[in-house]
Amino acid sequence: MAQQVQGVVARAKGEPVAIETIVVPDPGPGEAVVRVQACGVCHTDLHYREGGINDDFPFLLGHEAAGVVESVGDGVTEVAPGDFVILNWRAVCGQCRACLRGRPQYCFDTHNAKQKMTLLDGTELSPALGIGAFAEKTLVAAGQCTKVDPAASPAAAGLLGCGVMAGIGAAINTGNVGRGDSVAVIGCGGVGNAAVVGARLAGAAKIIAVDIDDKKLETAKSLGATHTVNSRSADPIEAVRELTGGHGADVVIEAVGRPETYEQAFYARDLAGTVVLVGVPTPDMRIDLPLLDVFGRGGALKSSWYGDCLPSRDFPMLIDLYQQGRLDLDAFVTETIALTDVEKAFERMHHGDVLRSVVVF
Ligand code: APR
Ligand code: ZN
Ligand code: ZN
């Protein structure tokens, strides 16, 4: 039987979100209903509310979540009721060219639940990133659920569903950071600081954090950055070169999404080094680089989408490292809040004083 639960809904562009009663159908074939235990507040949720993603209002927000599978539909073999899972944005098809070539991260036939959750009057909701987890329960495709160690804290586990995974993955998957490497991270918000943590996990010897905000640099230091550079007071390209014996870093991770920081990333890398772009630019942004520099510096210029993560491989592995005390996910949980406080959390995020506010149920 369909259930009624409370959820955070954005009804119209730019308007504050509100708690609404939503209707969650029973899972159909290939679907699962998950009892959400924790869901982080991410910039993308705010972006949905502001109409920056698309106009498919009303949105059911929330997408960095962990919880327990309550029920599954016909044909579901991936998970069973009672499993503790982290949710990801999209189930992959397993059949397309990308999937068959072993790159399901780039699957072009991904899917979410087929049925829709609705408001009480029957209006269909658009779940943020196909999840919609600022709700006591949510309906997803079973392939969006990845089973992990149930002893892990839900607030920490949920973070792997989005921003923290994007940052860690940028370092360990896309950047392929290796033991002894020097790594520079430009922009140390939630994503950049997760890249710092990823670089440390991968065994980087030098981790240079760059930001314009000293508070963020302090956090980066506490998470494993060996050096910090405030790029308001020092030229970050010069500073990174100086800190790497005049060479530049083996891997530079850009986690801001602005032309000037893309350019800094490009020039802060060593010859034949790798630049990883995680910051998402807006459609109007351009950079203008001499082709001879692109050619002459060698190396790789890569973009990292969702940290090039493979949930089935990366979520359980990172949760195991967390459980062993080798990956401090708790450091990213600045505060835990109630479902009613999402709007307040957006405000705090705007002021840049939290890594993550996490709704716990
Ligand atoms: N140089 C260096 N750092 C900067 C600059 C700059 N010119 N401008 C902003 N920053 C810093 C901010 O001080 C902040 O610490 O970049 C950081 C951005 O962090 P958040 O706003 O918390 O954003 P985050 O969630 O980390 O996402 C960063 O990655 O996935 C993408 O869409 C996301 O583009 C965004 C980026
Ligand atoms: Zn997110
Ligand atoms: Zn596919």
Automatic annotation (TrEMBL):
InterPro entries: ADH-like_C (IPR013149), ADH-like_N (IPR013154), ADH_Zn_CS (IPR002328), ER (IPR020843), GroES-like_sf (IPR011032), MycoS_dep_FDH (IPR017816), NAD(P)-bd_dom_sf (IPR036291). This is S-(Hydroxymethyl)mycothiol dehydrogenase. Signal peptide: none annotated. It comes from Streptomyces longisporoflavus. The keyword Thylakoid does not apply. Belongs to the zinc-containing alcohol dehydrogenase family. The keyword DNA-binding does not apply. Its cofactor is Zn(2+). SUPFAM superfamilies: GroES-like (SSF50129), NAD(P)-binding Rossmann-fold domains (SSF51735). Its EC number is 1.1.1.306. Residues 14-359 form the Enoyl reductase (ER) domain. It comes from the Bacteria. PROSITE patterns: ADH_ZINC (PS00059). Keywords: Metal-binding, NAD, Oxidoreductase, Zinc. GO terms for molecular function: mycothiol-dependent formaldehyde dehydrogenase activity.
